[in-house]
């Protein structure tokens, strides 16, 4: 838009600043705390008087690393595995829904999407009970499985919306031009499907990475406890004795990768979330 | 793939008998024909998904209903059947009223707050100006942050000794309210925190809807010299209706289930149940008080409530669309 008046420019500037303040103040609050020394926590000032890396050293190489680094490893491993499996399974399902003719398609879709209105908390107790008896309690698999049921519905929904928009005739056109069916699929369809699959993977990863209910209920030790659950292990109950500095540093560390992914792939993530929402 | 087999004789197939050796076709009661190969492929592709969802979500949900009729200490291997006692207890106990009230206030404020603010921000940022993508990313980002991390961050915003709020209010000579002692302020605190996180979601959905709207309608309104408000109410708002319904359903489902923010910030307190919502009560009863049967009862009540609310919303949406 060109020909903006000075008044409009000023307004835009003011709006931008307000939005930045709004979005960043909690981040600033936790980041500021993460650079404070223990003695400075109750000094009453918001900014750290003498910034220090101490808290980060504490959780990455110091005393708290046992808890934090294992949680980080669990979170990364569990989320990546769950995302990979969910994307493969959802791709198959979405292909069937978007591309194949079979009886009962509506029932299948309703069955898969209906899950998204189940309160997660109402599945926790029965799962806890079963996991304990078959030995999945406090294991990676014990979290990967519920993460699949958490991510599959939205992945199937997003991917089938993407797949419906793919011009599948291209595949035949390539075959007419002499490509084998595998070549046709790989050269014509895969490049068109890849963005949808990537978007779905991002969304599934965020869901698994951010989960809290399963993470806190189905784990009990460092063997499987993911970062969000580890964060909560210190907070809340004993507000005045908690290792505040370490927690704030841990919160920053767990947030940074997500923010980077958002800044890089905002458009893809949003296009995934808005599939079907706007068209109604 | 199936593409080659797919197109050859579909329209003709209905008129002629299947050519010999072409494989059987499944014929449904409606007389629609399916290719056997396609149906089998679909079955193979859907099977793992449906098994996972069946075994690990539908079955636990039913199991939860069964457990809701028992008295069960989660540490013991056996549950004792007690009929409707848990349900009677929940519907007659006074603490349920507090919990229900907290749930309604939290969910209502979260739905209304994040939708109104999200729409306002989307309208404000629906401009082609420098830096708008960065600004959008920043508003959106909180939605994909872990609720536990957001809870931790807002603890430092609301902290009574070194928090940002008391710092700012202190400079203005105002005493900060006691967010961690006063149940009402505590509820305000967790609700505000969740609205901050969820705003990113309502904002991007509304923004996408705004960008998908028909420009010619806006231009027509501009030619008619309609006021900004009239233009919004008559032209923009009706076009946002599908997005609004979608958000009402999804935001309500999500806000009803918020657990991480409350757990990290208040653990359901102060004064025992100051910020205890139904979800938090379920967790508390099951894993802290070890009354898993009662927890399952509250979970069942919550599931039925969510189901009814969602069905009502879908019904209203369908009726709205027919008008």
UniProtKB/TrEMBL annotation, chain A:
User: Family assignment?
Assistant: Belongs to the binding-protein-dependent transport system permease family.
Pfam families of this UniProt entry?
BPD_transp_1
What Gene3D superfamilies does UniProt report for this protein, alphabetically? MetI-like
Q: What sections of the protein cross the membrane?
A: 12-35, 76-95, 107-128, 140-163, 188-209, 247-265
Can you say where in the cell this protein is located?
Cell membrane
Main subcellular location: membrane
Statement: the UniProt record of this protein carries the keyword Cell membrane: yes
Topology with respect to the bilayer: Multi-pass membrane protein
Q: Which organism is it from?
A: Actinotalea soli
The protein depicted here goes by the name Carbohydrate ABC transporter permease
Q: What GO cellular-component annotations does this UniProt entry give?
A: plasma membrane
Q: What UniProt keywords are attached to this protein's entry?
A: Cell membrane, Membrane, Transmembrane, Transmembrane helix, Transport
Instruction: Name the PROSITE patterns on file.
Output: ABC_TM1 (PS50928)
**Gene Ontology terms: biological process:** transmembrane transport
Q: Where does the ABC transmembrane type-1 domain lie?
A: 72-265
């Amino acid at each position: 838009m060109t020909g903006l008046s000075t008044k409009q420019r000023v307004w835009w500037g003011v709006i931008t600043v307000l939005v930045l303040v709004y979005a960043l103040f909690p981040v600033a609050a936790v980041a500021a705390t993460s650079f404070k020394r223990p003695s400075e926590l109750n000094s009453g000032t918001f900014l750290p008087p003498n910034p220090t890396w101490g808290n980060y050293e504490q959780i990455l190489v110091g005393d708290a690393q046992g808890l934090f680094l294992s949680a980080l490893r669990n979170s990364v491993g569990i989320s990546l595995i769950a995302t990979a499996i969910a994307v493969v399974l959802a791709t198959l399902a979405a292909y069937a829904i978007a591309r194949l003719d079979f009886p009962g398609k509506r029932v299948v879709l309703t069955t898969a999407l209906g899950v998204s209105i189940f309160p997660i908390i109402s599945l926790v107790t029965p799962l806890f009970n079963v996991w304990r008896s078959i030995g999945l309690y406090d294991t990676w698999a014990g979290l990967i499985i519920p993460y699949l049921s958490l991510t599959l519905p939205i992945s199937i929904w997003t991917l089938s919306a993407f797949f419906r928009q793919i011009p599948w005739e291209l595949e035949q056109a390539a075959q007419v031009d002499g490509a084998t069916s595998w070549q046709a699929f790989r050269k014509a369809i895969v490049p068109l499907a890849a963005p949808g699959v990537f978007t779905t993977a991002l969304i599934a990863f965020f869901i698994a990475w951010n989960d809290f209910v399963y993470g806190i209920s189905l784990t009990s030790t460092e063997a499987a406890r993911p970062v969000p659950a580890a964060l909560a292990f210190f907070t809340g109950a004993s507000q005045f004795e908690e290792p505040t500095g370490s927690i704030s540093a841990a919160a920053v560390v767990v947030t940074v990768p997500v923010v980077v992914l958002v800044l890089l792939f905002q458009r893809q993530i949003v296009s995934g979330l808005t599939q079907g929402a706007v068209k109604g | 793939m199936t593409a080659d087999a797919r197109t050859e004789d579909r329209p003709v197939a209905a008129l002629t008998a299947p050519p010999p050796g072409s494989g059987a076709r499944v014929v449904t009661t409606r007389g629609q024909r399916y290719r056997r190969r396609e149906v089998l492929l679909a079955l193979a592709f859907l099977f793992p998904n449906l098994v996972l969802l069946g075994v690990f979500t539908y079955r636990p949900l039913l199991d939860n209903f069964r457990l809701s009729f028992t008295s069960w200490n989660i540490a013991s291997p056996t549950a004792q059947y007690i009929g409707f006692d848990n349900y009677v207890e929940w519907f007659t106990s006074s603490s349920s009223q507090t919990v229900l009230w907290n749930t309604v206030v939290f969910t209502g404020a979260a739905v209304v707050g994040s939708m109104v603010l999200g729409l306002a921000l989307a309208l404000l940022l629906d401009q082609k100006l420098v830096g708008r993508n960065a600004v959008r990313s920043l508003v959106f980002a909180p939605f994909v942050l872990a609720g536990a991390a957001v809870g931790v961050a807002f603890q430092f915003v609301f902290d009574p000794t070194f928090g940002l709020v008391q710092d700012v209010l202190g400079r203005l000579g105002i005493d900060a309210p006691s967010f961690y002692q006063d149940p009402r302020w505590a509820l305000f605190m967790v609700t505000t925190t969740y609205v901050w996180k969820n705003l990113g979601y309502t904002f991007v959905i509304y923004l996408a809807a705004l960008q998908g709207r028909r420009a010619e309608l806006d231009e027509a309104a501009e030619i008619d010299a309609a006021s900004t408000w009239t233009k919004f109410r008559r032209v923009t708002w009706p076009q946002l209706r599908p997005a609004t319904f979608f958000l009402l359903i999804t935001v309500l489902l999500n806000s009803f289930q918020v657990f991480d923010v409350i757990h990290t910030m208040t653990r359901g307190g102060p004064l025992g149940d100051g910020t205890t919502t139904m979800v938090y009560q379920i967790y508390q009863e099951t894993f802290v008080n070890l009354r898993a049967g009662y927890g399952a009862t509250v979970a069942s009540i919550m599931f039925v409530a969510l189901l009814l609310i969602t069905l009502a919303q879908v019904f209203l949406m369908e009726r709205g669309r027919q008008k």
